[in-house]
């Protein structure tokens, strides 16, 4: 999955990306690709650089070094048009609390250029998938955290993106709600062919068949299928592999200036 | 991106602004009550002290209430522009600004659409105020309601762009009240909204020049002349220039590579 040669069929391609904030290095030479229909977990401790990477992919920060392509579209050269195939769920909730679920989703659909009829049809179908169509006319303010997160996912899927980014999407949710959301997003990858980049620090959200990118102090320290990574590290499970990788990296003499 | 996409996006942004405005009923009443208090209490009280004026564009002597109406229309737009910037700071804190900025439309278009939607909301408030002023007997020509439309759009855009620029410099919602006090009140009082600049010149040359340098003075004069079917070229040029300046700087401020946001949003 990590390769210096660019695969033209990759849904998301991040190549040699580095980023600094003043003197502080946040990302260093980050390279990976995600194929269509794959669920890739971006695993890292808090401060590893996951949110910076998301901000670069979504153009909320300008790319300083390297290149990023979404469905083959270069985010630097193509500008905002490169964001068309992208659906994003940010770590921070982004819904308007004083509007209803329907009003929020219609607003986002309009920004994506969808007609009112098309927006209404898609939101109903996706809300049904997430078992909450009856909440459509309720204000977001009255929804609990889990339901708000589901609406965020529906919002990110309204324009039927080919790449879905989720930044710590389950933070603060209870275990059953987390499981429902994790299942749903895995199904989106396997059934609809959406490439998913799922940033998390929670190991139990990652499955053996997923792709894995381990980010530490702004660097990709390991990547590949979860099973392969675990056996390469020689650990019993992913938790053991992750802790082993972090420990090894922190002792590495080549590492300096943690993000 | 097609023209249809742009049109739908603008309609969506405008609809959201309307929904938010009408859901905040206090905001609507405050927007209406504020200029009416100035008109019906402040201006009535000062009528005797300040007397009448026949300065252009007025052809006969007018009462102070009539004089103050264009200034109060600009005041409604000034408050609305600052309210829009507060709303942008709120959106940034709540995360919905990210949703707007990660759609596949040019950032300048998104900001302009947001600005224009705010102006449409401000027009509703200004016309509601004008109609009430007319109903309580303030002598404003009915035809002025039509001829003042373009100046109101320009003034709304200029003040909204200023608000947008301010929003890009404000880090937290809590800091907003200070900015309001340092922008709204000095801008309003150091303008031709409440007193003719010719009279100001007689009492303080410093205040006169301060008012002349204030773009709100020129917005007020643009509105005042248009309300009586006249066109103030100088005011028009200055308002357009200030609009271009504020809007250009606001767009740069929201550019992730160069803008103020990039320096503040480091995760």
Q: Please identify the structural class of chain A as seen in this structure.
A: alpha/beta
Measured by DSSP, the beta-strand proportion of chain A falls in 15-25%
Please compute the radius of gyration of chain B using only Cα atoms: 19 Å
Helical percentage of chain A: 25-40%
Number of helices of chain A: 8
Secondary structure: number of strands of chain B: 0
Overall shape of chain B: it is: globular
CA radius of gyration of chain A: 18 Å
What is the number of beta strands of chain A?
10
Helix count of chain B equals 13
The tally of domains of chain B stands at 1
Structural class of chain B: mainly alpha
CATH architecture field of the domain at 12-85 and 161-251 in chain A: 3-Layer(aba) Sandwich
Catalogue the unreliable spans of chain B: 263-267
Helix content range of chain B: over 70%
- CATH topological fold name of the domain at 12-85 and 161-251 in chain A: Rossmann fold
What does this molecule look like?
The complex is a heterodimer of chains A (about 260) and B (about 270). Chain A is an alpha/beta fold and about 260 residues long. Helices cover about 35% and strands about 25% of the residues of chain A. Chain A has a domain of about 160 residues: Rossmann fold. Chain A has 8 helices and 10 strands. In chain A, strands 6-7-8-3-9-10 form a 6-stranded mixed sheet, sandwiched between helices. In chain A, helix 3 crosses helix 4 and helix 7 crosses helix 8. The longest helix of chain A is centred in the C-terminal third of the chain and has 18 residues. Chain A is globular. Chain B has about 270 residues and is mainly alpha-helical. Chain B has one domain. Chain B starts with a helix and ends with a helix. The C terminus of chain B is likely disordered. Classes of the chains: A alpha/beta (about 260), B mainly alpha (about 270). At the A-B interface, helix 1 and helix 3 of A face helix 1 and helix 4 of B.
